[in-house]
Amino acid sequence: MTQEMNSGHAVAIAFHDLTLGYEGHPAVHHLDGEIEKGALLAICGPNGAGKSTLLKSISGALSPLSGSLSAPRRRDIAYLPQAADIDTSFPITVLDVVAMGLWTQCGPFRAISGRRLEEVRGAVSAVGLNGFEDRVISTLSGGQLQRMLFARLLIQDASVVLLDEPFAAIDANTSADLLALIARWHDEQRTVLVVSHDLDLVRDHFPQTLLLAREQVARGKTSDVLTTPNLARARSRAEAFDRGAAVCARAA
Amino acid sequence: MLYDILIAPFADFAFMRRALVGSIALALAGSPLGVFLILRRMSLTGDAMSHAILPGAAIGYLVAGLSLWPMTIAGLAAGLIVAVGSGVVARATILREDASLAAFYLISLALGVTLISLRGSNIDLLHVLFGSVLALDDATLILLAGIASLTLAGLALLYRALVIETVDPGFLASTGRAGGPTQMAFLGLVVLNLVGGFQALGTLLAVGMMMLPAASARLIARDITSMLAIAAAFGIASSYIGLVVSFYASLPSGPFIILVAGGFYVGALVFGRAGGLLRNLKPKRHLEA
């Protein structure tokens, strides 16, 4: 079932017998494999398959229950969670939120130079928010908010980009613009991992896919992974939570 | 004539000058902290923390009587224990920050009142709870000025991290570990100011100086910079007006300063252009785009 990535490429992220979960219950079970540098990988699977948990763990926000995960330092990872817990009532402008992306470079004290500020303005315009620089974020629509968060990801300039359901509740126009940014990151040899439920979108735009259902169902070329039998198998394995489950024998 | 009314009380009486300097120092440092407490939806945290200080102040009082440094240091220690303790409980257990803070401060308050009643009368308790802005000595004034300076310097250092942590805590957490220390340092400054405040205005009213100008500013300002400036201006104006009016009307100064701040708040509630009541009554006009 496992289709390993081409060897010979530099590895960005590696899993070894990785089990992730909450309070001892696994959400992702015994995952092995490597993600090469520069990969553009979609992560698919039913609800409860462990997709978000996997991204959270790669971002450094969740420690493994067992096994190991090797990923770049946090500052080299740009992570957009599924429901970004951004407080839109805070009186702050689009430009300032996008400038937050400079945190890893400038930290708490370093001045933001004129050149960097130009980069921030460039990112705002790259996501199609020209003229919105001084708008307070409470006045933005859902799509504009997502564009703003993508501009912040641009500014983070990270070698690994993790996006969790970035196209949920986003219209076709905005999705197309954001997909163009993802393609640009791919061209720049960044490693991009995107969780998505939209299989058509994945087939059209992502060369590689990891199909997850609490464990790896398939991985490799998207057209080889998103097959009817694989998807049926993924559906049958989703969302198993047993309060009385025995201790996993493989963990011993 | 105007001089007699507005300036003379301060020119003629040293205790009024001290009261003004002390309460302005509190307003300058407390109001920006209040702004962040409000934006972080922690408006009641100041109130809870002010109770948390009480057992420390009481222990200081039991050991050394009504004297500045023992009560200040012990109050600060108690406040920091509660701040750190409730932060740790919130991260390590299923309880959220509000529940763990509520538990800590209730225990603290009960402990403080018990300790104070071991020695002394109700009048002493009233001093701890309501302070006396008209009886600031040199040592207290230096303490207040020191706390204000430290707070403003600390906020300047924390500012960027604090804004990011408030707007998008998940973002800060995903880029490193600055979130926890930032929140702790901020709560430390809140405790420091409440400890300073109980010398001048008392624990309960010190919270008012922190929160009322900030709440007023939230109703008026549309961005954080002007919110900080407006809150500080309201705090300073409340101090001055409160002192002058209470001087002529023979009213208690500390509570009256807070009442003036409350008056500004009611005004902002009605007329505030960013979120006041009248804003909803105006005939609606809209633009082309």
TrEMBL record, chain A:
Alphabetized Pfam families for the sequence: ABC_tran (PF00005)
Source species, domain of life: Bacteria
GO molecular function terms listed in the Swiss-Prot or TrEMBL record: ATP binding; ATP hydrolysis activity
InterPro entries: AAA+_ATPase (IPR003593), ABC_transporter-like_ATP-bd (IPR003439), ABC_transporter-like_CS (IPR017871), AztA-like (IPR047748), Metal_Ion_Import_ABC (IPR050153), P-loop_NTPase (IPR027417)
Protein name, per record: Zinc/manganese transport system ATP-binding protein
PROSITE patterns per UniProt: ABC_TRANSPORTER_1, ABC_TRANSPORTER_2
Family: Belongs to the ABC transporter superfamily.
Segments traversing the membrane: none
Record-annotated ABC transporter domain positions: 13-239
Keyword list, A-Z: ATP-binding, Ion transport, Nucleotide-binding, Transport, Zinc, Zinc transport
SMART domains according to UniProt: AAA (SM00382)
NCBIfam families, per the entry: AztA
A biological process from GO: zinc ion transport
Automatic annotation (TrEMBL), chain B:
InterPro entries: ABC_BtuC-like, ABC_TroCD
Keyword field contains Transport: yes
KW Transmembrane helix (keyword) present: yes
UniProt cross-references to Gene3D superfamilies, sorted A to Z: ABC transporter involved in vitamin B12 uptake, BtuC (1.10.3470.10)
Transmembrane segments annotated in the record for this chain: 20-39, 51-69, 75-94, 101-119, 139-159, 228-250, 256-278
Gene Ontology terms: biological process: response to zinc ion; transmembrane transport
GO cellular component: ATP-binding cassette (ABC) transporter complex
Principal location class: membrane
Membrane topology reported for the UniProt record: Multi-pass membrane protein
Subcellular location, record wording: Cell membrane; Membrane
One Pfam family here: ABC-3
Keywords: Membrane, Transmembrane, Transmembrane helix, Transport
Annotated family: Belongs to the ABC-3 integral membrane protein family.
PANTHER family xref list: ABC-TRANSPORTER METAL-BINDING PROTEIN, IRON TRANSPORT SYSTEM MEMBRANE PROTEIN HI_0360-RELATED
Protein name per its UniProtKB record: Zinc/manganese transport system permease protein
Originating species: Methylocapsa palsarum
Source taxonomy: Bacteria, Pseudomonadati, Pseudomonadota, Alphaproteobacteria, Hyphomicrobiales
